Amino acid sequence: MRTVEHFIGGNAAGGGSRQHDIWDPNIGEVQAKVSLGSRDELQKAVDAALAAQPAWAATNPQKRARIMFNYKALVESNMDELAALLSSEHGKVIADARGDVQRGLDVIEFACGIPHALKGEFTQGAGPGIDVYSMRQPLGIVAGITPFNFPAMIPMWMFGVAIACGNAFILKPSERDPSVPVRLAELMKESGLPDGILQVVHGDKQMVDAILDHDDIKAVSFVGSSDIAHYVYQRGTENGKRVQAMGGAKNHGIVMPDADLDQVVNDLAGAAFGSAGERCMALPVVVPVGTETADRLREKLIPAIDALRVGVSTDGEAHYGPVVTAEHKAKVEQWIQTGVDEGAELVLDGRGFKLQGHEKGFFIGPSLFDHVKPGMESYREEIFGPVLQMVRADNFEEALSLASNHQYGNGVAIFTRNGHAAREFASRVEVGMVGINVPIPVPVAYHSFGGWKRSAFGDTNQHGMEGVKFWTKVKTVTQRWPDGGGDGSNAFVIPTMG
Ligand code: NAD
């Protein structure tokens, strides 16, 4: 059986006494193993990074950008292979897997412009004969810890910008679908990146703790579930690191009475059930405003959801494939039961779904709940599966407060033809990313990605200029070049430039 190894110093490296199963969720069988490393493997990666990073930081930004250009072309020419590999471990359909790679590549395109993004500020004549300028310098060795649900995009969010800024980056991907992250690192080497600048170490909590405790790692970016994000943020910052930690989500779609309901149903079906609901920007909660809107929406939603095709991830006609593991499938089905026990109306029940010929695959049919109430646990917590919950609101204010008061604040969408309502909503809602008639408002790569409340700990977002800020530190220089005649300056009094 294939074993996925670490990628250290530009080469595949064994190591770690434990292994983790990598499943093929389409057939419900183990297809490979991944080595789980610990402090020893991490130390090897840190040593390689320490050796390589100073020269990389001293390489001029234009040359670093040229490697990003090479990389973009190389990933594009390997797109089919990457998408197939990703789909086989994650279970998302091939077209969606290509999107996963492409949204990461968008960040690589942004990183191609790093010479411009790294330009500092300059003030000539800030005082008599004094100029002030600032520069952004890399942090040194940095790390990223990523979730299973976007095994291409999220690593590239992080390493695209971090590496272009002159850092050495150590990636600890999800142990559930680690093959694509390793391929991405191999392709970086082929693009001309020096060994030791992008490395991959595999593992679970042990490896995460080793990263968080390592003195030579200066910053950690994390994306995953909220409790672990909080833990990573606390332990990492306690150890003096810069940490950004993105967590879970429960995104609401507000449907105003004037919305185009056919469009809404089409958008909701894709945003709630695409990738089997395993997206942090999925739209698993719909909030119709007013009983009439709710009833009309429900009537249109039922046949649209019934018509969804669940299939193997290589089925070009399937809307979505299996969830990632049997354990995750059981968890989602348990949440459906909790919703029923709490008194929500289960309109469509996706449990017990069997795909003919793939009875052992981790498939779940689509589920729809109506009359979900804010007090329910199944509403408060993230389900992360193909389950859409309808929470009815009487008016705009109630809908706004539902999204604003939820513990998560990753994304939200409003569907309306009323510009005033949309503008009011966008300015008042307590959520980090807002869609106006856009169901999945993932910002483009040159803007930045980040939620609020328990969806993100730390204060800088992923990619865009926020990413450049996270992966660099600012140095500010105040200089004068006296002509030798003495300028009467006196440092006994704090300089006031007056
Ligand atoms: P997860 O929290 O289980 O795992 C994320 C990472 O943490 C993995 O690399 C994993 O190995 C590691 N990890 C797991 N258990 C750990 C522990 N006890 N201590 C330390 N590290 C540990 O998340 P997941 O199931 O892989 O991904 C799904 C979650 O990620 C969902 O909650 C989803 O909303 C969230 N997510 C958030 C965003 C965002 O940008 N906010 C994006 C994608 C996914």
Helical percent range?
Answer: 25-40%
| Class from secondary-structure proportions | alpha/beta
| C-alpha termini separation | 73 Å
Q: What is the C-level CATH assignment of the largest domain? A: Alpha Beta
CA-based shape = globular
- Mean pLDDT value: 97
**Quick one: CATH superfamily of the largest domain?**
Aldehyde Dehydrogenase, Chain A, domain 1
**Count of distinct structural domains:** 2
Bound molecules: nicotinamide-adenine-dinucleotide
Main beta sheet: 7 strands, mixed
User: Which residues sit in consecutive blocks of at least 5 with pLDDT less than 50?
Assistant: none
Number of helices: 16
Please name the CATH architecture of the largest domain: 3-Layer(aba) Sandwich
Number of strands: 23
CATH topology of the largest domain: Aldehyde Dehydrogenase, Chain A, domain 1
**Radius of gyration in whole Å, from Cα?**
25 Å
**What percentage of the residues does DSSP assign to strands (E)?**
15-25%
Protein name: methylmalonate-semialdehyde dehydrogenase (CoA acylating)
Keywords: NAD, Oxidoreductase
Enzyme class: oxidoreductase
InterPro entries: Ald_DH/histidinol_DH (IPR016161), Ald_DH_C (IPR016163), Ald_DH_N (IPR016162), Aldehyde_DH_dom (IPR015590), MeMal-semiAld_DH (IPR010061)
